[in-house]
Every structure is written in C-alpha cells, then in structure tokens.
Write a sequence for this structure.
C-alpha cells in the first residue's frame, strides 16, 4: 500500500538533486570558460618547478614568487593545490616528481597570499610568506 506523502517526498528529493547537479555543472563550465582552471594549473606547476629548482641549488638560497594572483595554496604529500576557496570544484593540482622533496613537507596552507618565498636553509626547503634571515644563527 502506497502512502500519499511518499510521491511528494521523492519529487522534492529529485528536485534538490537536479538543482545541485545544475549548480555544479554551471560552476565548472564558467570556471573553464573564464580560463581560471588553466590559470590555477599554471600557478601550481610554476610553484612545483620552483620547488624542484631551489632544491637542486647548492647552499642556502631563496626565491620570491609573486605570481600567486591572490589564490590560496596547499602543499601536502607531494601535491600542490591552488584554489580560490576551499570548496572550489576546479583546482589547479600539480604532483611533484619523485624525489626526496616529496616527503619533505607536511600540510602547508597559505590563504590569499600575493607572494610566497621558497627558501632552502641547511638542505631543508620551506615555503613561507616572508624572506628568511640567513645571518640569524
């Protein structure tokens, strides 16, 4: 025996699911149409290549990257994510090549930064927002 309210409840659930799918589709398509997905991917790739380059330099050094364009950055377990908001559907993700650099980072979050500083001090690569003081011992 069917209850009268069951059909209305299923219709409401289907309606909410349809709106959710439509919202996600529009959000993703607008991000690709505006080119922000490719822009985030290029920023993530550039930071990854900067990390690899600074790790190969002998001695202590630093590199300032001011091309973040206000995006947030997360580095964890060999991956670099670049995004505007935490719940973005379109993120720029770059995987670092296999090296000892991959396990060197924990979870590193920089939100809404205009620039980052990638430094290498005593063979340890770090990401921060300020230039390190090499003469501080």
């Amino acid at each position: 025996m069917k209850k009268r309210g069951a059909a209305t409840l299923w219709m409401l659930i289907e309606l909410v699911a349809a709106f959710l799918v439509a919202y996600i589709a529009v959000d993703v398509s607008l991000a690709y149409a505006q080119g922000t997905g490719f822009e985030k991917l290029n920023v993530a790739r550039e930071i990854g290549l900067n990390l690899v380059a600074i790790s190969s330099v002998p001695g202590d050094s630093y590199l300032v990257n001011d091309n973040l364009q206000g995006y947030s950055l997360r580095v964890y377990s060999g991956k670099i994510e670049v995004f505007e908001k935490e719940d973005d559907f379109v993120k720029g993700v770059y995987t670092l090549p296999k090296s000892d650099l991959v396990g060197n980072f924990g979870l590193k979050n920089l939100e809404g930064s205009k620039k980052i500083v990638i430094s290498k001090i005593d063979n340890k690569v770090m990401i921060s927002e300020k230039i390190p003081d090499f003469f501080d011992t």
Observations:
- The two ends are 80 Å apart (CA to CA).
- The beta strands are 61-65, 72-76, 79-83, 92-95, 108-110, 116-121, 124-128.
- The helical segments are 4-34, 36-56.
- Residues 4-34 form the longest helix (31 residues).
